[in-house]
Amino acid sequence: MGIVNEKLTVQSKGDAPMARPPHKRASIINWLPLAPFFLFATMFLFLPSISIFIGSFKSVDGSFTFDNIIALFTVKDFINAYRTSLTISAITALGGAVFGFLLAYAVVLGGLPKGLRTFMTTFSGVASNFAGVPLAFAFIATMGNNGLVTRWLESAFGFDIHAGGFTIYSITGLSIVYMYFQFPLMVLIMAPALDGLRREWSEACANLGGTSWHYWRYVAFPILIPSLLGTTILLFGNAFGAYATAYAFSGSFINLVPILIGAQMQGDVLFNPGLGNALALGMVFIMSISMIGYISLQRRAARWLQ
Amino acid sequence: MSSNKRSTEKVTRRDFLKVGAVAGASALLAACAPEAAAPAANLPDLTSGNSIPLDDLIAAAKTEGQLTTIALPHDWANYGEMIETFKAKYGLTINELDPNAGSADELAAIEANKDSKGPQAPDTVDVGVGHTANAMAKGLFAKYKVSTWDSIEMKDPDGYWWAEYYGALAFEVSKPAIENSPQDWEDLLKPEYKGKVAMAGDVLKSNQSVMTVYAAGLSRSGGDKTKAAEMGLQFWKEVNDAGNFIPVIADQGTIAQGETPIVMEWDYLALANRDSLAGNPETEIIVPKTGVIAGPYAGGISAYAPHPYAARLWWEFIMSDEGQNIYLKGYAHPIRFNDMAKRGVVPEELAAKLPPAEAYANAVFLSVEELQAATTYITENWRSVVFGE
Fold it and tell me: Which residues of A are less than 8 Å from B259 in CB distance?
């Protein structure tokens, strides 16, 4: 979650446009305070990426090979895994973004009691970091076949959640589990962004005869769109890379890329780190594409701000 | 080999002993050269691999004074008691390297310390039996046949490794959730077990789960090993199609909570689970009637061991009746169990805590090659056959 938290602080500062300081020529001194960041990024982002890239072309005995990369496009299990991973990440990123935004809106601008906001942000802070084995177990223990809620619905209302063919051990079920940390993360990031909307802007819009729709369509939404897009991408990455939660929840029953990587790298059955690296390289590639998409969309969205 | 240089150096026997019997003996072993045996004529021969008389071995081990082990968690197969008893009995110290290392790590530790006699070089290892192939190919093991060699049921004919204990795959059943416990693999298909049958690991990641597939197939094929992998996948496809398979990776938590009321596990893990759950909930451990598969661990001595005599003494102790019963106390089935049961040297109170001894009489052991072939077939076809993808 390190990356998430880092993004979080960066994002929560720069949401609404502030008056820009006069443009100064950057000297080397100005860059110096960033040195720890660059060091960190090199050690935990660039070097591992390079190692993944190099590792992708290694066979089990260490010689050079293209087999791992070819396998990504030819082995049915791998293609399916990318498809499932992308589906789950997209569903939970969009779902988390929409509902998270609405909840953040309700809490910040909905005129709810102040105490509720503190409660919501605290809860979101905890819930967005609640993942892995404990999260999986929490859902198994509440909504599993023998879960508390499942049993309670059965005994109190005679309602069988499995009657319609639903089972928590499915792509839908795993999406619900992921939403548990996606949703609060969106709230956490969007709340400060919504705070950045100044009352003067909506008043100005009203003074000019604009309706609430006009305000949101032409003022608030365009201001918020960079944070909305950025957070959605963040949620996408968050779900795309989730491993421990999915593994504890249902092993390889749901075919996800991180699960396949885990099997190649650390099981006592399969062992082909090169293939694991190639699968990871595919994920890096997909994340890069979505980041590039994000940057260009964000540029377009923010053009009028400049 | 590493110590060719050392054996050509001009050292008198006295100097040699001064340097230390530890280094000398290991140089000897590593050199594996008959002429190197001459300077230490009073130390027992290591090259033949034959059992050394216990008194001579103890004396030689005492000059080394120490043993270096690796990957022996104290709560795994009762290694804690094994280590303490050994130390008290022979007055040697034990230097325990990373207790949580995996089999591959153990072999890597031998390889990495080939040229070092330091405290990070393990003398002995305890690895999953499948890993012995790799160790043999790289020449990491020294041969030695302990005095109880004949009654060891699984071993390398030349004495490079031997099984010390094994587990049999058993059903761990949570009693409140399941009224009638399944007694055999085919029972798992019954409608009453809908959504109740789980594995303790993932087939793509855990040898235990690969064996769970294989054992079911072995039960179906009537013991025909060549068909077991294929029939095992077919069996689990039926379990999944019937809605009986629940994909949660079962652990003590999910067993206690009741989500995974029937779990296939090595019996020693299941029995230890039963003890730590302490009746909340009540669990029953059942060894299936057919398709009883054994998962053995193999012991070996590093070919580069800094303390070769202490290592051999360690194995003499573990493979003795006394050492084997210590495994049994931790629910790991000693490899000499059948022999010991026949001679009546398994204590009553220990036997009473285990499933009946007859259940293990038919346990099937796989050779390293059979294990590898089955693993490859099962992992490659698991998703496509069982989940129809």
Answer: 140-141, 144-147
